[in-house]
Design a protein that fits this description.
The protein is of the alpha+beta class. It contains three helices and two strands. Strand 1 and strand 2 (73-80) form a beta hairpin. The longest helix is centred in the N-terminal third of the chain and has 19 residues, at 14-32.
């Protein structure tokens, strides 16, 4: 341990902090034990719409998000219906 670490502490890397926060969120979702839609899905849908609308004209109805458990794992499925491109 260096003198700088003793004085100012050790800074965690951003990826490590993000991973730890995600693990906390997942643990909280599992602890609630609800079989209904997780709280973050409406926010995820809204954010996806904001990003996609920069590139393609889509509506909220064109984005379908579902979550289910398969073989003991959580599966997040995302379906986006994109408009057909115009033929020239």
């Amino acid at each position: 341990m260096s003198l700088m670490e003793l004085l100012f502490g050790k800074k965690d890397k951003t990826a490590t902090v993000a991973r730890d926060r995600l693990q906390i969120i997942i643990a909280q979702e599992r602890a609630q034990g609800s079989a209904s839609t997780p709280d973050y899905l409406p926010t995820l849908r809204k954010e996806l719409l904001e990003v996609l609308s920069k590139y393609v004209k889509v509506s909220l109805d064109d984005i379908r998000i579902s979550q289910e458990k398969q073989d003991g794992m959580d599966v997040l499925e995302l379906n986006i219906t994109l408009p057909e491109s115009k033929k020239v």
